[in-house]
Amino acid sequence: MAAAEAPAVGKQVLDTGWLAARSTEVALTGVELTTTHPRSSSAAAPWMHAAVPGTVLGTLLKNKLIPDPFYGLNNEAIIDIADSGREYYTFWFFTTFQCAPAGNQHVSLNFRAINYSAEVYINGHKEVLLKGMFRRHTLDITEVLHPDGSNLLAVLVHPPDHPGTIPPQGGQGGDHEIGKDVATQYVEGWDWMCPISVDVKGLGESDAWSHYFGFRKIECTIDDSTGGRIFKVNGEPIFIRGGNWILSDGLLRLTKKRYMTDIKFHADMNFNMLRCWGGGLAERPDFYHFCDEYGLMVWQEFWITGDVDGRGVPVSNPDGPLDHALFLLCARDTVKLLRNYASLALWVGVVREQKIQGKYLSQDSTDPSKYLDGTRVYVQGSMWDGFADGKGDFSDGPYEIQYPESFFKDSFYKYGFNPEVGNVGVPVAATIRATMPPEGWSIPIFRKGIDGYIKEVPNPIWITTNTFPTQNQGRSMTKLNNTAIQKILMISVEK
Predict the structure, then answer these.
(1) Which of 85, 290, 431, 434 is surrounded by the most beta carbons within 10 Å?
(2) CA separation for the pair 220, 383 (Å, rounded)
(3) Cα–Cα distance measured from residue 20 to residue 43, given in angstroms and rounded to the nearest whole number
(4) CA–CA separation, 254 vs 248, rounded Å?
């Protein structure tokens, strides 16, 4: 067979043509899959078409093997990793690609991220991607590519080591086990893969790099009179109007178009800052690109939440993720990934009151946000140094549903900058219809006891989907006309 033509210098994104299968249902090894027993392009069981970039759950949903977890109580029909064990959600991903280097060309296989670790096989050669959700991986595959340009790639993805479980009484963070890993803490650890690419360099070019850029000056200081953070952009004071961003899709079905739509939506609401909450992700570069374009500043947190503060039932690990060196490695890589985006306004170490912060990032020369960036303010936590009471105590909120007029009262919040607060009401009718069957549309009943306390009696779907009560001593929800809301829902369905 004749050798393939040399590939053009540049990047090839491997985001189509993937197959996936549960590892316990595949008898072949990675070497066999990429040498003597490769998969065909057909998705014969146990193999299925995979969503890459994406999650295992996203792939299962794509193939209609699980119901939509975001509709009604469908999530209760999905086997949880705490019950199935990690092996059940350990998956093979397989694809082929064309690439044959020539002359002085070098080829790298780049992984944007893996949750949580992986074994990579390419044409029978094995590489290990070490643990850590927030790190990139680059493999030099020049010497193992086939001369004819046809290459086989298989990736075995393992979930986090400590996915954890949800105690019978529920609660935020579950049993806090997920906090022991350097991984997103808003789920129990279903595994996923972010974009994968093949990068060809050579033919006289030693290296190449390009990036959009913008010129701006962001100043962030503490106001002497209020104790709150104030921001200036190019010398002009900016009144911050923002919100917390976790993910716009829990299954990571995220595209450039979706990022553009979501970010523009926030800009249209007159937001000028988004807080990337520490229990979520360091977002994909597309997120920051569109924040650049639409003029939203980004408050970027690292990945420590209430799952590592020594509190809760059961008590969480008080010393943060178990592998401190891995945490810092991921922090360094994240700083290098994001530091060139003009929208990035400040780094924040942790969520809320954790006082273990100094063990990870600090103001000294070992702090990655300083020696790898140095152009932005670093704050150790979301309730420190100009946020909330500035001392790391529980001083944000109030939560639950709020009266809209409350936000405009001087008595609503006594500190200068509030990092978290409750919202003003239930979702619009279209959102309720899209996420709940009709039996979930009933507005909770409110019963007033002889002591004056108003008890909320929600329907079963609302019980499952609510973390906080939808009212507080009769606040807000008692002002709604339940019959009118239900009529709106029913009229829309009839149309």
Answers:
(1) 290
(2) 15
(3) 9
(4) 8
